């Protein structure tokens, strides 16, 4: 009897932090419902741009020296999402864009250009970009491609002046499994995240269970591109964004925990967990600005996010009648925050003007920031 109670207590005490986490997530289902959501913004101004030209941009990154942003957008995501589990047959391809945010003299038309993919074997027909990473010293652009034929990491050489990304090679590897985000740490070395152990493509139910129970099935993989030798260096529930904070520190976001894992990188490229920063939203992607501040984008209300994710194929389709249905009126709020060791977490924005925020980036010198939205039209651009 005592033994049973003791064992029960031991199990309970181990589960406690876990239950507390789950409780926080579930509590946000009520607190952050779109009609109750507390809206705030610390930005001087913000607007949604290119709503008629861009849709479903997941990732963005900056070349501050040139005043350019590179955007990864996939109109096909409504129907093809290997993370959320939407698999339709006819799917349009996604594209990469360059946005010149620093030159106010350009018209909107001139400021946003689609990148041409040169020498890319599957052409533009099977391109579903998610996370992207740019290693400036070698002009190397890494793109997670959730292709229908299997997920890969595509490596391109970027020429900004000719708006062309020339394909160098495709990285396929057993550890490129459910790739999500990439962080380059030298010219031939990257870390990337796999979001799940069970790919939604193969085991939809197990993948869902993995997400909702926050099982640490996601991973961080280090790969040396001279030899393609790769190994898993950390396991995290729903590992999502990854960003280098400084020479010795790496940040990885967990979308089911929800929070940010801060790791020290050893010389051997192992990761040693330093701390977990809790975030009041379900964290999507993270980025680091020039001042070393970590920018975080997330989804404050998971149920609306899941509804939007599941219904876009219908709501963006020609079938006018169906798109007037209730499900198409659901709005999924956005949230942006920042974190530093000294100041801790600061919330910057929460609202409904722009939906499904997935990445936030900032040019600290120019005081310009960009938010992308997984299922949103256009991008949100803010000024500080
Ligand atoms: C998230 O952002 C980082 C840094 O900006 C980038 O390297 C990564 O590929 C992004 N991932 C996704 C899935 O957007
Ligand atoms: C890197 O960032 C971490 C976390 O903010 C901090 O503790 C550490 O001191 C920083 N290291 C350097 C070399 O700036």
UniProtKB/TrEMBL annotation:
Entry superkingdom: Eukaryota
InterPro entries linked: 6-blade_b-propeller_TolB-like (IPR011042), Serum_paraoxonase/arylesterase (IPR051288)
Name of the protein in its database record: Putative paraoxonase
Lineage per the UniProt record: Eukaryota, Fungi, Dikarya, Ascomycota, Pezizomycotina
């Amino acid at each position: 009897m005592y033994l049973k109670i003791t064992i029960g207590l031991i199990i309970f005490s181990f589960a406690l932090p876990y239950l507390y986490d789950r409780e926080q997530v579930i509590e946000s289902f009520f607190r952050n419902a779109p009609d109750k959501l507390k809206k705030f913004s610390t930005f001087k101004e913000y607007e949604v741009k290119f709503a008629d030209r861009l849709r479903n941009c997941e990732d963005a990154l900056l070349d501050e020296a040139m005043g350019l942003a590179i955007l990864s957008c996939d109109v096909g995501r409504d129907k093809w999402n290997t993370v959320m589990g939407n698999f339709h047959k006819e799917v349009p391809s996604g594209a990469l864009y360059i946005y010149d945010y620093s030159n106010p003299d350009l018209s909107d038309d001139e400021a946003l250009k689609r990148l041409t993919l040169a020498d890319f074997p599957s052409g533009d027909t099977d391109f579903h970009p998610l996370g992207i990473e740019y290693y400036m010293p070698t002009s190397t652009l890494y793109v997670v491609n959730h292709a229908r034929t299997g997920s890969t990491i595509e490596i391109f050489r970027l020429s900004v002046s000719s708006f062309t990304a020339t394909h160098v090679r495709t990285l396929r590897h057993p550890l490129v499994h459910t790739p999500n985000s990439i962080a380059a740490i030298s010219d031939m070395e990257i870390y990337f995240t796999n979001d799940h152990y069970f790919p939604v493509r193969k085991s939809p139910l197990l993948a869902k269970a993995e997400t909702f129970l926050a099982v640490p099935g996601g991973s961080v993989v280090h790969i040396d591109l001279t030899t393609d030798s790769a190994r898993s260096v950390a396991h995290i529930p729903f590992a999502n964004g990854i960003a280098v904070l400084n020479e010795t520190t790496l940040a990885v976001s967990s979308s089911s925990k929800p929070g940010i894992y801060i790791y020290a990188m050893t010389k051997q490229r192992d990761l040693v967990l330093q701390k977990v920063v809790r975030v009041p939203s379900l964290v999507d992607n993270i980025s680091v600005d020039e001042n070393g501040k970590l920018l975080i984008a997330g989804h404050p209300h998971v149920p609306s996010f899941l509804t939007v994710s599941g219904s876009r194929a219908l709501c963006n389709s020609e079938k006018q009648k169906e798109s007037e249905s209730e499900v198409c009126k659901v709005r999924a709020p956005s949230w942006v925050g920042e974190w530093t060791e000294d100041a801790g977490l600061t919330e910057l924005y929460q609202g409904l003007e722009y939906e499904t925020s997935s990445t936030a980036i900032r040019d600290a010198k120019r005081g310009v920031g960009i938010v992308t939205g997984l299922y949103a039209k256009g991008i949100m651009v803010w000024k500080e």
